[in-house]
Amino acid sequence: MVELGWREWVSLPSLGIARMRAKIDTGARSSALHVDAQWRYTEGGAPVVGFRITPGIAGHGVVEACAPVVDERDVVDSGGRRTRRVFLAAQLRVAGIDRMIELNLADRRGMRFPMLLGRSAIAGVFTVDPARSSIHGRPPRHLPGPPV
Question: pLDDT by residue (tens digit) across 80-97?
Answer without folding.
Answer: 889 999 999 999 999 999
